[in-house]
Amino acid sequence: MAKNSNAVLIQIFTTLIAYLLMALFQIFRNSFLSVLSIKRLVKYYGHLPFKKVAKIYPMLSG
Questions:
Q1: Tens digits of residue pLDDT in 3-59
Q2: Which residue pairs, CB below 8 angstroms and at least 24 apart, start in 6-12?
Q3: How far is the C-alpha of 11 from the C-alpha of 41, rounded, in Å?
Q4: Angle at the Cα of 50 (from 47 to 53), degrees rounded to 5?
Q5: What's the number of domains the chain is made of?
Q6: Are 24 and 37 in the same domain?
Q7: Distance CA 32, CA 59 (A)
Q8: What is the predicted pLDDT for the residue at 47?
Q9: How far is CA 28 from the centre of its chain?
């Protein structure tokens, strides 16, 4: 009986993890800034105050 319940628990958690990964993909796929653009922002505009960077990239302030 324990083997069957372990198999059921594994199926449930695998399904939950899959749904979580799909939800995270949907959230980050539609984001305005990609990882590369964030790295570029930090590299070139890291020394500026946030308000000036937000004027250059208005999507940061929203």
A1: 788 888 888 888 888 888 877 777 666 666 666 777 777 777 778 787 777 787 776
A2: none
A3: 42
A4: 80
A5: 2
A6: no
A7: 7
A8: 80
A9: 4
Residues 22 and 42 in one domain: no
Say what the pTM is: 0.43
How many residues does this entry show for the chain? 62
Tokens 């937000």 belong to which residue?
54
Are the C-beta atoms of residues 53 and 60 closer than 8 Å to each other?
yes
- The encoded tokens of residue 40 equal 């570029």
CA atoms within 13 A on the CB side of 52: 7
- Here the tokens at position 38 are 């964030």
Residue bearing tokens 């539609």:
30
In terms of residue numbers, what domain contains 55?
32-62
DSSP one-letter code for 59: G
